[in-house]
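Q: Could you fold this chain for me?
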Amino acid sequence: MIRTPAPNLTRRSLALGLAAAPLAGGLFAATPAAAQLSAADKALVDKAVAYLEGLSQAKGAFVQTDPRGVTTQGQIYLKRPGKARFDYAPPSGLLVVSDGDLVSIANEKLKTFESYPLGATPLSLFLARQIRLDRGVQVTRVSRLADGFSITARDGKKEADGQITLTFADAPMRLIGWTITDPQGQSTRIRLTSLEKVSGLDESLFVLKDPRNLRPGRARM
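A: Sure. Below is the predicted structure, expressed as structure tokens.
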């Protein structure tokens, strides 16, 4: 069952935004129109798109920092288009899986299970089959860093509230993390401590069923 989240749900279930569950609010309305990118900015955007589209399958490790400064860590698996898995290390109890259509969040400690449309989350911006940061997505900033660059974008169609900042390193070119900011201005940062291209990831990694529907004596839904 797809549920509309209460305002505190993303804070509790996703430590404020790993998958950025659909959020009410008006960050899009308050955010300026897409930035006028220079030729150098556009070149970096094109470089990022080429890299992401070439990242068909990958696995690695991540550290997540929520707005309160609390950190958690775990393993990440990506299979584009649309599929991702975030295995949080104990004692978190969280497992987040995108199957290409839905982002599902299971919390073993709280015994909760929630699902949201992938298209309503900022993660869909870089898990899409064809990444187009020049169409349907508004790039609001391109920033140069000491050893790389970052790109901040939001959904120009306003299907997903919030914004995402992807951070890349140069030499070699690689995604090293992202920050998701919700409509209230609170940010959750994912830092990839490792990420490598792989092949043959098992499809079962990207399937997460509601355990409450599989208990003995209950009908499966």
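A (continued): The first helix runs from residue 9 to 13.
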